[in-house]
TrEMBL record, chain A:
<comment type="function">
    <text>E2-like enzyme which forms an intermediate with UFM1 via a thioester linkage.</text>
</comment>
<comment type="similarity">
    <text>Belongs to the ubiquitin-conjugating enzyme family. UFC1 subfamily.</text>
</comment>
<feature type="active site" description="Glycyl thioester intermediate">
    <location>
        <position position="115"/>
    </location>
</feature>
<dbReference type="GO" id="GO:0005737">
    <property type="term" value="C:cytoplasm"/>
</dbReference>
<keyword id="KW-0833">Ubl conjugation pathway</keyword>
<dbReference type="GO" id="GO:1990592">
    <property type="term" value="P:protein K69-linked ufmylation"/>
</dbReference>
<dbReference type="InterPro" id="IPR014806">
    <property type="entry name" value="Ufc1"/>
</dbReference>
<dbReference type="Pfam" id="PF08694">
    <property type="entry name" value="UFC1"/>
</dbReference>
<protein>
    <recommendedName>
        <fullName>Ubiquitin-fold modifier-conjugating enzyme 1</fullName>
    </recommendedName>
</protein>
TrEMBL record, chain B:
<feature type="coiled-coil region">
    <location>
        <begin position="510"/>
        <end position="537"/>
    </location>
</feature>
<feature type="domain" description="E3 UFM1-protein ligase-like C-terminal">
    <location>
        <begin position="659"/>
        <end position="751"/>
    </location>
</feature>
<dbReference type="InterPro" id="IPR056761">
    <property type="entry name" value="Ufl1-like_C"/>
</dbReference>
<protein>
    <recommendedName>
        <fullName>E3 UFM1-protein ligase 1 homolog</fullName>
    </recommendedName>
</protein>
<dbReference type="InterPro" id="IPR018611">
    <property type="entry name" value="Ufl1"/>
</dbReference>
<comment type="similarity">
    <text>Belongs to the UFL1 family.</text>
</comment>
<feature type="domain" description="E3 UFM1-protein ligase 1-like">
    <location>
        <begin position="537"/>
        <end position="654"/>
    </location>
</feature>
<keyword id="KW-0175">Coiled coil</keyword>
<dbReference type="GO" id="GO:0061666">
    <property type="term" value="F:UFM1 ligase activity"/>
</dbReference>
């Protein structure tokens, strides 16, 4: 994990409520904290001119979807992002998926779920309930995109929409 | 739930917000590099790389810096301020300078006009306080080069700075200059004598006056031009001299009065009065003067001299110029004066200058010369006369001292000279001089030289010896004589003039003398040659006669066949005729070899003569003389032959006819002698001889003692008349008796009659 990521993560507000989607009011509280964390993260990104995703959820906050993008060789590659809140949340981290890249890379499970590094799971486990969606994006999806997109572009697996 | 909705809205809205655009530093650098590559922008890096700057900004910043530093800044000082590479700065500065004329770079420093203005203003302020500033001090103070400062000051003079910039060195305020001018005015007004300006100014350079040399000089000129000070400046540079009018006026007044009074003025006195080029000054002042080497004289003097010259030319005389000209004139001056005279200029042939201040009419000189020539002529004639006298009475001069020296001529010359008037030295000398030339290849140089040496010691001690001697002796010098003659003729003439006139005439006279002497000598030589030839001829005829006689006598003697009387006869012959022949031969040889001699009668004289003859000749002659004392006629004959071949004399052999003629001659002679002879002994001898001749046709040259043998020969002859024989015998006996008997000097009358008879008998035939 690079320093910048660490710094960024350290700036994201930590969560306190330990509740899953099935915990009723407790979840609402948790959801509030999730939103606050996301807002903080987006603000940080915007400020650093490092905005790389948009996200929104259903009313109950169980299903989330949005977009994420990566700039490589002065070209912006944008992908759809979606994931469901697992029942065991926040014990387990959400499984982030980019369906359109399914089958294009080995670092991906069925259904377009990205294959995270070995460090992610223990890190997450150590920080339950303090880590939320924002952390998952920052520590999971961002490094993955940074590693995979150049590889995919170089191998010609994906193409910029202007080149299609 | 509402809260949640709010949060969701907030997230949404935040996501909608535009994110702040941000470039990383690295990107920025890359972008700029790219842009520079593409020449889209033109910027300059700062040295630390943190900033870029556009040229325009740089220009502005430099301008700001210049302004900030008050208009003068070193370019190297800009570099740390702007933090930009110095080359960009210089480029930019150059650009600025091109655009902005008020800025200039001087020795790496940027200077603006307003900075220089401020400097000059500052100078002006200070100048007003002190009145005088030196550029070097200013240069030190402002840390500006002198020439820059000068060029800054010069265009601002009178505008920003009110001063006089003297020689681009010192600045003065007008007040200061005025002050200075008044000092100069005061100083030079007080001067009454010529003075070197530089010295005076230097004297007042320090102290209260504080004079500036150049300025003082200029102001002095101004003051003189403005007639504030009366005087003139003479000379240039450091030797320039100020001569106050008061001085020059009095001086020129003095010069004028002196010149007018005395008609001359010496340059020296002008030099004393500080006129450096007196000649030029005088020429300028006195138009009608004449410049000489040490003096300047009035034309009047020249005219006066000229008049006198005209006079002496007309009067045929001479002139001493020195009393006519002012006394301080040197000889050279006088010569120049004379040269100035129109007479000398126009007709230089009419008079000449001698000893620089004597003018002598050429006619006068000619006259002198003619006189001298005459005297020479006289002298020569006298000498010649004396010489001729001597030649006539040649034998009379027998000076023992003269034996080894030329016999007649030198002596006569000497006599002539001495008998003339009192110039013995020179005359002697001239005689000496003639000798060597005359004698030419003479072998008697030894004696000659000796004489010369003597005369040198006595008469000509000033004559140089050695090599010059010979040469000098060849030249005849009549200087002394000329001087004497001239002083005798012209008693009023100055001694110097006589000297120089003599010097002038000397070559001419000497030449004339030489010519005359030469002529005379030639004449003389011709004469001597002639006489010598004559003499030679005479001698040789004499010799021939003698030889003929000798032969005749020899023949006669040999014919006689008388053993008894032969040695006697031979001896007699040798002693008389042969000795004469030998002496004659010596004489001939001496004459031929031009040996001077007076007599050869004694053996000593003869041997002296012989010594100077060629050895071969002298040897054979010696032998000849030796043979004389012997008694053989043959020996004499032989040696005589050798001598004659050596002396290149041809002896005539006697032939029958000439023998006969000779005999007749002798006979006639004898008869004549007989007719006049008084002595009976001689008469008898002649008679015997005549008889013998008649009888034998031979002339026996016999001494009186041998007459008897002759008589006996006659008597033995058959042809002779018996009476005559008897008569002769008796006569012989009587004569012998009479001679032996000395007391009786006369014959007996008988005998005398016989003698007379025979005499008349013989004379009749």
């Amino acid at each position: 994990m690079d320093n910048q990521t660490k710094q960024t993560v350290a700036q994201i507000p930590l969560l306190t409520v330990k509740a899953g989607p099935r915990d009723g009011d407790q979840w609402i509280e948790r959801l509030k904290e999730e939103y606050q964390a996301l807002i903080g993260y987006v603000e940080i990104n915007k400020k650093a001119d490092n905005d790389w995703f948009t996200i929104e959820s259903n009313p109950m906050g169980t299903r989330w979807q949005g977009k994420c993008w990566y700039i490589y060789n002065f070209k912006k590659y944008e992908f759809d992002l979606e994931f469901d809140m697992p029942v065991t949340y926040p014990e387990t981290a959400p499984e982030l998926a980019i369906p359109e890249l399914e089958g294009k890379t080995e670092k991906m499970y069925r259904g377009g779920k990205i294959c995270l590094t070995v460090h992610f799971k223990p890190l997450w486990a150590r920080n339950v309930p303090h880590f939320g969606i924002a952390h998952a994006l920052a520590l999971g999806l961002a490094p993955w995109l940074a590693a995979e997109v150049p590889h995919l572009v170089d191998n010609g697996m994906i193409k910029h929409h202007e080149d299609k | 739930m509402e809260e949640l909705e709010k949060l969701r809205q907030k997230l949404y809205s935040i996501q909608k917000e535009q994110s702040a655009q941000k470039l990383s530093e690295r990107n920025c650098i890359e972008i700029i590099v790219k842009m520079l590559e593409l020449k889209m922008i033109d910027i300059i890096h700062t040295l630390n790389g943190k900033e870029y700057i556009t040229p325009k900004q740089l220009e502005l910043e430099i301008k700001d810096e210049i302004l900030r530093s008050g208009g003068r800044v070193n370019i190297t000082d800009l570099q740390p301020l702007l933090n930009i590479d110095i080359s960009h700065i210089t480029d930019c500065v150059n650009k600025i300078i091109k655009k902005d004329k008020s800025i200039q770079i001087y020795h790496g420093e940027i200077m603006t006009t307003y900075y220089l203005d401020s400097v000059v203003e500052e100078i002006q302020e200070q100048l007003q306080e002190v009145g005088k500033l030196h550029i070097n001090d200013l240069s030190l103070r402002f840390d500006l080069e002198v020439d820059l400062l000068t060029s800054a000051i010069n265009p601002r003079l009178g505008r920003l700075i009110h001063a006089v910039f003297d020689a681009s060195e010192t600045l003065y305020t007008q007040a200061h200059i005025d002050r200075h001018k008044h000092k100069v005015m005061g100083l030079f007004s007080s001067v009454t004598q010529p003075i070197i300006i530089a010295h005076l100014v230097r004297q007042y350079q320090s102290g209260d006056y504080q004079l500036n040399e150049r300025m003082a000089f200029g102001q002095l000129q101004e003051l003189i031009a403005a007639k504030r000070i009366n005087g003139i400046i003479q000379g240039k540079g450091s030797s320039a001299e100020y001569i106050p009018s008061i001085f020059s006026q009095s001086r020129s007044k003095w010069i004028e009065s002196f010149f007018n009074q005395n008609s001359y003025i010496a340059y020296e006195s002008l030099t004393k009065l500080q006129i450096h080029d007196p000649k030029a000054y005088l020429k300028q002042t006195f138009k009608n003067g004449v410049a000489l080497s040490t003096c300047f004289i009035d034309q009047l003097v020249v005219d006066k001299v000229d008049d006198s010259i005209t006079e002496i030319i007309d009067n045929i005389g001479w002139l001493d110029v020195s009393p006519l000209v002012p006394p301080p004139l040197s000889n050279k001056d006088m010569e120049m004066v004379i040269k100035e005279c129109p007479n000398m200029k126009c007709t230089p042939e009419k008079a000449i200058v001698l000893n620089e201040y004597f003018v002598v009419s050429t006619t006068f000189i000619d006259r002198c010369f003619t006189l001298l020539q005459q005297s020479i002529q006289d002298k020569l004639e006298k000498q010649q006369k004396a010489m001729e006298n001597l030649a006539v009475s040649k034998d009379s001069v027998k000076d023992i001292n003269e034996i080894s020296s030329p016999p007649t001529k030198a002596t006569s010359n000497k006599k002539g000279g001495k008998s003339k008037q009192g110039a013995p030295g020179d005359l002697d000398d001239s005689d000496e001089d003639i000798k060597p030339t005359k004698k030419g290849g003479n072998k008697k140089k030894g004696g000659n030289k000796k004489k010369n040496d003597d005369s040198d010691d006595d008469d000509q001690p000033n004559k140089k010896g050695g090599k010059n001697q010979q040469q000098q002796q060849k030249k005849v010098d009549h200087l002394q004589e000329i001087i004497q003659l001239l002083s005798k003729w012209y008693e009023s003439m100055e001694e110097e003039l006589i000297q120089s006139l003599s010097q002038y005439l000397r070559p001419k006279v000497n030449q004339a003398w030489e010519n005359m002497v030469k002529e005379a000598r030639e004449k003389l030589e011709n004469e001597t040659m002639k006489s010598r030839k004559q003499q030679q001829q005479q001698l040789s005829t004499q010799l021939n006669t003698l030889y003929a006689n000798y032969q005749l006598f020899k023949n006669g003697m040999q014919e006689m066949d008388d053993e008894k009387s032969l040695p006697n006869l031979t001896k007699h012959l040798l002693k008389t005729v042969c000795t004469n022949i030998a002496n004659l031969l010596v004489e001939i040889n001496a004459n031929y070899h031009m040996v001077e001699f007076s007599s050869i009668e004694t053996p000593a004289q003869r041997s002296a003569v012989l010594q100077s003859l060629p050895s071969q000749v002298s040897k054979s002659l010696d032998k000849l003389f030796a043979s004389l004392s012997k008694s053989s006629i043959e020996e004499f004959q032989d040696t005589l032959d050798t001598v004659c071949t050596h002396s290149q004399i041809k002896l005539k052999q006697l032939d029958k006819k000439s023998e006969r003629a000779l005999l007749d001659n002798h006979e006639k002679e004898l008869k004549e002698q007989l007719a006049h002879e008084q002595d009976f002994g001689n008469q008898f001898q002649i008679i015997v001889n005549l008889f013998y001749i008649k009888l034998k046709n031979h002339y026996v040259y016999a001494p009186p003692r041998s007459i008897g043998s002759l008589v006996s020969v006659i008597c033995q002859d058959e042809e002779t008349d018996q009476v005559l024989k008897d008569q002769l015998n008796t006569l012989h006996q009587e004569v012998v008796k009479a001679i032996v008997n000395k007391s009786n000097s006369t014959l007996e009358p008988e005998t005398t009659t016989i003698l007379e008879n025979i005499k008349t008998l013989l004379l009749k035939q």
